[in-house]
Each structure stands twice: as structure tokens, then as C-alpha cells.
Amino acid sequence: MLSVSEASRVFTRFQRRDSSAPPQNDSHCAASKVERKTLRALGSVVQFAFILLLFPFASVQAADVSKEKIAFAYASISPSMSAVWMAKEIGAFDRNGLNAELVYISSGATTIQALVGGSVQAALGASNAVVAAALKGAPIIAVASNTSRPGMQLWVQPEIQRAEQLQGKTLAITRFGSTSDFVTRLVLRKLNLENKTELRQFGGVVEADLGFRARQAEGRVSSQAPGPKAKMLVDAAELGIPFSMNLLAVSNEYLSKSPKSVEAIVRAYIEGVAALKTRKAQALKLFEKYMGQRGGSPEMHYEFVMKYLDSVPRIDPAAVETVLEMVGVKGAPKNKLYDNSIIDRLVHEGFTEKLYKGAKS
Predict the structure, then answer these.
(1) From residue 227, how far is each of 161, 182, 214, 276 by CA, in Å?
(2) Distance of alpha carbon 303 from alpha carbon 306, whole angstroms
(3) Does the model's pTM come out above 0.90?
(4) Which pLDDT band holds residue 357 (cuts at 50, 70, 90)?
(5) How far is CA 276 from CA 72, 113, 231, 356, in A?
(6) Are 250 and 122 in contact (CB under 8 A)?
(7) How sure is the predictor about 360, in pLDDT bands with cuts at 50, 70 and 90?
(8) Cβ atoms 125, 249 nearer than 8 A
(9) Nearest CA to 293 among 188, 166, 204?
(10) Residues 6+ apart with CB under 8 A from 249
């Protein structure tokens, strides 16, 4: 498509060519002068109209250029990540001045490694991976959370009737350091099975589900049934454990140098949560699009959102303390691990309340 400046040059060349035409004989001279004046006037009108027609496209191109381009990583194909998908689908990132590319990196631990390495500007990944990395000196900080309790269940093969039957058996996880690994260990500790089972890595959530279906594991802690024959043995959310499944993290440098950009990311994420909870029809279509590899019905995924995703994604200090206790550094200072100031300011300004006011699902 021609730009506005290119279109102008085309019409200018047309006008110059017209004005440089050879003179006509006397019998046509008067008529030719009238015709040339008419053509020049018509050309100017057409040029003006053509430029007006192109102006909206030029404006859109300029607007796209002015948006900050970021890479936003998410750690699993799970309804726990769906607010990021919805934010992208409804244009929340664009509205907040960001040209966001969503990047799927299997496993929360690997996602946080990408953030630490500078490959992405923001990441929604395993809370334990975020905290562990920050404790080791990684220059990252959490600015939001997606849940305040573990929205996962312990699923077992049909023949397993009681928790103690898992002793000596294999449980499927994605990777060590991931959310599935961490919550599995939390559940095993509560069931007095810590260090009494084998945890096997399968890579990603889809691969871990497939491993369970192939009976390469007797148990799997997951946000949904890993197979049609899986039986739920324990709901981790009912164990009374404060826990954030994933934290939205950025680098300290990015937060320091581009606080408005980080706020824009948080705003977009909150808009995504609100849209999920208030636009059910659109949310169901979203799950059909993004959750195909995992299976399960869109209604089931929507139920997860309504039950577990926090409308105000404030980081719960008690949830962070759970992680610190599990990694053996209980009581460590938390001010370098997370920052709730953006969330608190948005709540004070009424941003979150406006998103739900008068909304219908």
C-alpha cells in the first residue's frame, strides 16, 4: 500500500506531466487551456481525497510504531495462565501502549530462567522458581500473583484407594522447580509421604498427562484430570496451604527504568482476569483455542478461573512464606522478593472495581 507521501508524489508527477504537454494548434488552444485547468483542479481534488483515504492507515501504522514491544512468557497450557491469553485477545496490552508477544515456555522454572537471562520482559511462572531465583541473587522481582491457594488436585490411577498406597510409587511432574513439582511436594508433606515416592520429570504439562495415561506414573498433581480414568484423591486447595501458583515477575532494572511499562503490564493482566470472569461466552471460546492440547471441557476450565484466579492479584505474604519454608529459608526478608505497590495503587484508584461494576457474564 502507498504511503501518504508516496501518493502525493504520484499525483505531483501527474500534474507536472500535464503542465509540460506540447502546445496545441490555434483551433484547439482555448479549449485545451480549459481542459488543462479542469484536469489540474480535478487532480488536486482526487489527490486530497486519496490522501484522506490513506490517513487512517498511516495513523494506525504510526500508533503501532509508538507502542513498546515486549515479550511476555507464560509457563504452561493451563487455565491458571488464561488471564494472559485473554489480555492479548481483548487488546488490553495494546490499550496500555504495549505491543506484547506471548511466548510459551514449558515449565515455570525454565520460564523464570528466560526472564533472568533477559530473553523476555515479563514472565508468569512458578512462584517457587521466582522466589528461589531472587534468593540466589537474581535481579528479578514479583509484581503480581495469579492465585492465593493451590488450584491443583492429586490424581491417581483407579486402583489407588488411599494416600498411603502411593508409598514407593511414581508421581509425574513437569520439571524440577516447576509449580507441579512444588505443589506435589507440598501435598506429599501434608500426607506424610515426603521422600517416600519417586518424582519423574516429563517436560511439560501435556507430556506429564500423557505419561500418566501410559501408566508410567501412579499419581499426578494437576489443575485438571490427566486422563479419562484418573481419580481425584486430594484437593490441594482444601489442605489450608496459602500458596501462589504463579507470580508475575520482571527484572529489577526494568521496574526501575520503565515503571510505567510494568504498570501497563499489570493493568493488562488485571483486565484479562476481569474479562474472563465477566464475559463467559468469550472465555469459553478462549479455552477452546488455547487449551486444545490439554483436553477437558471449556466449562471445566472456566470453573477453575472462577474458583481460583484472584480478581485483585495482590501477592499474599503468607503464600510467599510457604515457599520460603519449603526451600528452607523461612523468615527471609520479603521486600526484595515482591512489590505490591502497583496493585495497591490501582486498587486505591478504583481501577479494579470499575472493571467489574455493572458487568454481566
Answers:
(1) 17, 21, 9, 26
(2) 5
(3) no
(4) confident
(5) 19, 28, 28, 11
(6) yes
(7) low
(8) yes
(9) 204
(10) 112, 115, 122, 123, 124, 125, 130, 140, 141, 142, 143
Tens of pLDDT along 232-279?
999 999 998 999 999 999 999 999 999 999 999 999 999 999 999 999
Instruction: Please answer whether residues 138 and 241 qualify as being in contact, where contact means their C-beta atoms are separated by less than 8 angstroms.
Output: no
- Integer Cα distance of 36 and 22 in angstroms: 12
Distance of CA 324 to the CA centre of its chain: 25
* pLDDT tens string 328-353: 887 788 888 999 999 999 999 999 99
Kindly report, residue by residue over 117-143, the tens digit of the pLDDT.
Answer: 999 999 999 999 999 999 999 999 999
